[in-house]
Amino acid sequence: MENHENISYQQLLEQNVSAVSSVSEKHEAEASNELENILSNMNVSTWDRYRAATWIEMKLLVHLAAPAVAVYMINYLMSMSTQIFCGHLGNLELAAASLGNTGIQVFAYGLMLGMGSAVETLCGQAYGASKYELLGIYLQRSSVLLTATGVLLTFAYIYSKPLLLLLGESAEISAAAALFVYGLIPQIFAYALNFPIQKFLQAQSIVAPSAYISTVTLVLHLIISYFAVYKIGLGLLGASLTLSLSWWIIVVAQFVYILKSEKCKYTWTGFSLTGAFSGLPAFFRLSAASAVMLCLETWYFQILVLLAGLLENPELALDSLSVCMTISGWVFMISVGFNAAASVRVGNELGAAHPKSAAFSVVIVNTVSFIISVIASIIVLLLRDVISYAFTDGEAVAEAVSDLCPLLALTLLLNGVQPVLSGVAVGCGWQTFVAYVNVGCYYVVGIPLGAVFGFYFNFGAKGIWLGMIGGTVMQTFILLWVTFRTDWKKEVKEAKKRLDNWDTKKQPLLLE
């Protein structure tokens, strides 16, 4: 009798695998239900359960993560290409673009992305619980808050030159960086709309349209940048204005998609004055917690660049770190794509009351992301002597970059796990806890260590980076420990409680 049950169940596993061979042909909710059922069935061996579950989870993950990775990498390529255009104007322009981009612009990027992650938590769990109408309300509230924040950030951009001088940067580099930053002011408000829209779409596993939009925009960005920087001769200002324009193209195109797509007809029901402006204080608190969590991560390596500007040879230090940070940031976008996938998958499964599926998703997404990061690290080490020539022709910079590449490879390995764990935290709503961890690991341990190695022991840029890697290692191990000790049944209850608090209607707004 037992053998007969196992054979029947084996046949069922094969049927399930076949049924989800293409996620696009099957509603994600049905695949999610099957995944939870397989993981919960104790009448079959662990190997058979996990084999079938891995197949389903990989299909769901690839369907979501692949376009998300493409979106983040292409968007980052726009900033990366802008830096390359500036770098070929000269070493001063490369240092200025690096300082303006990493020292000022990343400040706004981290804040806006962090605040937008509140949408990621709430929309992911609401979609999993079939409370579809709430997604549009969350999108509107987040856009209002981020736009208001953008007005305040504008002042930091306007006064970027005195701010950089106050931080001890050289007058020549600060003046050039400020010129670059002035052209990025329109980008602030593109961020304010883009991140909520992006999270709104990702929560519904709608990612491919954003990838297509970003691809077309990248091509336009390269063409316009070439003419603005070299043919018209607008230099640094032309490069940054083109970058701002490209981000606005993405925002407008994505919003047109939301208005026209049948996939969003239940989640976007039009602008609601009451929905957009009600409950903003409570929404701000969650957005602020999300912002603090991600800002502390984003600003961490931003501080590395600012510290490098205080070294004895700031131009060489900034140029070499700029190249390494740009490469790191581009590969980091792969992990950010998996971060988004982890957040959506965990949020959806918790909202659907699937604790086993949520836990299993965490394992799979971390494993895949880490393997990709190992491959990227090996490639960087193999190309360490020539990789800088894509950015600048300077031989001194090439030698400095080659010297930093082992640290770059180690950073890439850590980036294969750490951002994904942050995505899990966003999916669960742990932003406040992670913010405390980030403060301790990054700012109590990492930065002081980097300053000691860099300045006291005269290790330069390598010492600053090495010390800061120590903080990242500590943070990664803490998040790993917490994540894999999580009581996922308790997290399901917390997700339900959170949605009940944010929704006065106790029944789903749309029943399938």
Automatic annotation (TrEMBL):
Any one Gene Ontology cellular component term annotated for this protein: membrane
Keywords recorded for this protein, A-Z: Membrane, Transmembrane, Transmembrane helix
Pfam family, one: MatE
The keyword Endoplasmic reticulum appears for this protein: no
UniProt keyword Membrane, yes or no: yes
Coiled-coil region: none
Membrane topology, record value: Multi-pass membrane protein
InterPro entries, per the entry: MATE_euk (IPR045069), MATE_fam (IPR002528)
Compartment annotation: Membrane
TM region(s), chain numbering: 60-78, 98-123, 144-167, 173-194, 206-228, 234-259, 290-311, 323-346, 358-383, 404-427, 433-457, 464-484
Listed GO MF terms: antiporter activity; xenobiotic transmembrane transporter activity
Gene Ontology biological process terms from the UniProt entry: xenobiotic detoxification by transmembrane export across the plasma membrane
NCBIfam families given in the database record: matE
Family the entry assigns: Belongs to the multi antimicrobial extrusion (MATE) (TC 2.A.66.1) family.
PANTHER family: MULTIDRUG RESISTANCE PROTEIN (PTHR11206)
Protein name: Protein DETOXIFICATION
Organism whose genome encodes this protein: Daucus carota subsp. sativus
